Amino acid sequence: KQSKKKLEAKVKKIVKLCVAAVALILVAVLTFNLVSNFIGHKGLLRKVMNAVEKYEIEELVSMSSDAYYFAGEDYADFYFESNVGSVLDYLESSVGHDYKLSYEVYDVYTLSNRNMESLLENIAWDFSEFDASIVGKAVVANVTLTAKNGKDISSIDLTITMVKENGSWRLLYLE
Q: What is the model's pTM?
């Protein structure tokens, strides 16, 4: 009888350890996913979309690539005002001015070596005085931005290019 009780106690202890290990793994995975949404390119993308929704051009400029500093005074302001403004104008013309925005990221990918070389050539062309060699990585996010006003719904697709410059993720293009 005692050996049976000892065996049952061991089994209970093993089950408790297994449950604790699974719980610990779940907490670690959830924490990693939560933190990754606030850092790296995912965090930048979230901030960019919040700034687009609120039409915070200065916020977009503050997150933009250092390349814009070589494009002339106010170029980044003009670029983001023009692109974000045309997107919001399109949505407003479709659903009116009192709308709620939402977005869905439907594709995120790291550029291949071939596409990275092409991007670096474009950067060198667009921003000739910028040292494109500081760009270590590029990620593109395809996003659908949707405006809803009552029964009226309109969507537009955006392509957001983010680059890693000197270890920090920055916004390059919003098209």
A: 0.76
Are residues 95 and 153 in contact, defined by beta-carbon separation less than 8 angstroms? yes
Cα–Cα distance measured from residue 52 to residue 48, given in angstroms and rounded to the nearest whole number: 6
Cα–Cα distance measured from residue 148 to residue 92, given in angstroms and rounded to the nearest whole number: 10
pLDDT digits (tens, 9 = 90+) for 91-136: 999 999 889 999 999 999 999 999 999 999 988 888 888 888 889 8
How far apart CA 95 and CA 147 sit, in angstroms, is 7
